[in-house]
Amino acid sequence: MYNNWEELEKSIINCKKCKLCTGRNNIVFGEGNKEADIMLIGEGPGADEDKQGLPFVGKAGQLMNKAFQGLGIDRNKVYIANVVKCRPPGNRVPESDEAKECLDYLRNQVILVKPKIIVLLGSTALKNILGNEYGITSSRGKWIEKNGILYMPTWHPAALLRDENKKIEFWKDLKEVVEKYKEIEKR
Ligand code: URA
Question: In CATH, what class is 5-186?
């Protein structure tokens, strides 16, 4: 574990810990407010993210930004990262060895940001962070507290592009998050 961002960022530059390194154009480390109270964790970079080196900049990300904006939270107020930092080929789900190798970076990011709330975007984030016993359909929208952090599992924004009904639930979950954040801020 590194206790500063510079060392952590330096440690990942030439990462070859898993096979995803062979297909990447850019490592998508993470982006946002490094002292944010809210952290968002997705699955892994897609084509747009791989091209730009930034998380959630494609269609799904734009939809997510809109939802946050509508709730009065600017994207640069939160910190955004993914379970894996390199694009899985064809946007497939990261394999367990890939996620395992990459999770130390994410854990280190969580330790440095010290968020009060973590939004888990989709099943891959939920299972890798909280455990395989959790399912996204039954867990979404429900707070889970662990080691002093409040977790809110919700749909992955890409799922909203495929199923309109999920948009309403996603919005509801983010609203919960923003309300909790405001409540915490007041304390
Ligand atoms: N999907 C993710 O899970 N993460 C991104 O950064 C982009 C799309």
Answer: alpha beta
Nearest of 37, 36, 38, 41 to residue 28 by alpha carbon: 41
Which of 43, 119, 121 gets mutated to test ligand 1 (max ligand atoms within 8 A of its CB)?
A: 43
In this prediction, residue 187 carries a pLDDT of 86
Q: What is the pLDDT of residues 16-43, one digit of tens each?
A: 999 999 999 999 999 999 999 999 999 9
Helix (H) / strand (E) element for 124: namely: helix 123-130
How do the domains of the chain map onto residue ranges? 5-186
Tens of pLDDT, residues 84-127:
999 999 999 999 999 999 999 999 999 999 999 999 999 999 99
Query: Ligand 1 pocket: which residues have CB below 6 Å?
Result: 28, 42-46, 49, 55-56, 58, 60-61, 82, 158
